Amino acid sequence: MARDAHRRSTSAASTPDSMDTMSSIAPAASASARLQDWLDTHARIFVLTGAGISTGSGIPDYRDANGAWKRPAPVTWQAFTAEPAVYRRYWARSRVGWPAFSTARPNIAHRALAGLEAHDRLSLLLTQNVDGLHQAAGSRHVVDLHGRLDTVLCLGCGDRHSRNALQTRLESDNPDWQPGPAGAAPDGDADIAAEAVAAFVPPHCLLCGGLLKPDVVFFGENVPRVRVDAAQAALTASDAMLVIGSSLMVYSGFRFARLAAEAGLPLAILNHGTTRADPLATLKIDADIAGTLAGLDACG
Ligand SMILES: [Zn+2]
């Protein structure tokens, strides 16, 4: 912040019309310059991304600019595994939401981070998203903190298979099912009528009859320790941390911002709206994510 303020004051002193010049700069360009300055002062960056980076790919997020729920909270592990009605509802909605989710494409923000990795600027890209869009954009060193929606796991026998293959089964098991009007929802979910849910036949494992679950971490479930350890090791070996597109309201992501602060690492946040880690940040940029990342040197 201080660095940026100094640059502006220097600029104002040297060019009489600089205020007009500044006011004509698009907010995203100004945000890009601030982020570029910050990146230029830190060699190896640990990046944490959230839903805000994928909204530009047409995947809705859960929270508003104040970090509050925009819609009903996601299903919990406890309800999904213990209540047949919740299990049925999850898969009926997923049957409708999957086609759009699975065909979403990376946007310029994902490609910008792949570009930074190609320039050897990232120690790790840790994402809370379950859409695989960082990998689709070309990022290689990625940890999917909350798993991936494109894989399905049997809770009975541990069998794993592709979500695309399950979609074929969901359709063949419900040949005459009519979901009716649907609204897009986060994480491959869709809003459909309760009557449609009641008529849906949910899937079970073909090998053991067990419950099937997308291989993602539900609310009420723990992140696998191996992912946390890998991320912590990378954070320890980093010069700074950058959070993009997350309110960090969920502890599993917030803890890394806290660890960075405790370790004395500079913490920058690019997010549209407030985040839980704002008091820890050394740089906060409240701006459009795709527009800001598109303006970085490594991404032009
Ligand atoms: Zn099974």
Please outline what is shown here.
By secondary structure, the chain is α/β, with parallel strands linked by helices. The chain has helices at 2-14, 18-24, 27-40, 77-82, 84-102, 108-118, 133-136, 163-173, 194-198, 225-236, 251-262, 289-294; strands spanning 45-49, 122-127, 142-144, 147-154, 160-162, 183-184, 190-191, 212-216, 240-244, 267-270, 283-285. The chain has twelve helices and eleven strands.
Spell out which ligands are present: zinc ion
Low-confidence stretches: 1-26
Mean pLDDT: 89
Structural class: alpha/beta
The overall strand count is 11
Q: How far is the first residue's CA from the last residue's CA?
A: 24 Å
Alpha carbon gyration radius: 21 Å
- Count of alpha/pi helices: 12
Give your account of this protein's structure.
It is built from 12 helices and 11 strands. The protein is α/β, with parallel strands linked by helices. It has a 6-stranded parallel beta sheet with strand order 3-2-1-9-10-11, sandwiched between helices. It is elongated and about 60 Å long. The two termini are about 25 Å apart. About 35% of the residues are buried. The model is unreliable at about 1-25 (pLDDT under 50).
Keywords:
300 residues, alpha/beta, 3-stranded antiparallel sheet, binds zinc ion, 12 helices, 6-stranded parallel sheet, disordered N terminus
List the helices and strands and how they pair.
Blueprint: H1 2-14, H2 18-24, H3 27-40, E1 45-49, H4 77-82, H5 84-102, H6 108-118, E2 122-127, H7 133-136, E3 142-144, E4 147-154, E5 160-162, H8 163-173, E6 183-184, E7 190-191, H9 194-198, E8 212-216, H10 225-236, E9 240-244, H11 251-262, E10 267-270, E11 283-285, H12 289-294
Parallel strand pairs: 1-2, 1-9, 2-3, 9-10, 10-11
Antiparallel strand pairs: 4-5, 4-8, 6-7
Helix pairs in contact: 5-8
The structure holds zinc ion.
Zinc ion (ZN) binds next to loops.
